[in-house]
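I hope you will forgive my troubling you with a question about protein structure. I set the record out below, with my sincere thanks for your time.
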Amino acid sequence: LDGASEEIQTDSNLRMQLGDMALKWARRKEGTQKVPGLVFARGQFAKASELQPDDIDAATAAVETALELIDIQIEAKQPSTAKEHASWAVKIGESVLEGGANTVDLRLAVAKAHDQNAKLSHKIQDFDSIVADYGRSADLLVSCADEAKKPEEALSDAAQVYLDLALFVAEGDADLVAFLARLALGDQGGEGVALGADIDEPVPALLE
């Protein structure tokens, strides 16, 4: 591609086709052998998204491919590399969302990227960004509930993110853990708060 004409290099459809071919190649491999194909595919999808900003499918494919890379690197015990993929996925995903893209699949993928980015960050040095990542992930998941094919799954995932946030922030504060647990579980019995309801501020603000 580097030596190809500008017409070929700027062909977003060709980029998508190359990405799909690389994915098919990678799926025939095992473990870290998939990485070269997935990295190439991710790059082609990202380039297609750059060439056609309104092509939400390209951006979604790029983020979803990055999520596959994260899982592979975690399994291979390469957290720093997995973190790089997570940060990349968050950056491109949020960029597309800020540009006006608004599909359930994209939001779900970006939510997962934020969640993984939080889990792979340094607990002390990256404290604020971890809280922000968890909060953003949960917000995106809740926003998908009305449109997702399985709304209960989106809410369940959001609840888990809130619980992860509680366990991370509380560090032994049983009262705070209990509050966020009730928030996540949507307790309607007068002792808790329904998930996504009756809350004027996002969770990170509540924790301040």
In short: The first helix runs from residue 6 to 9.
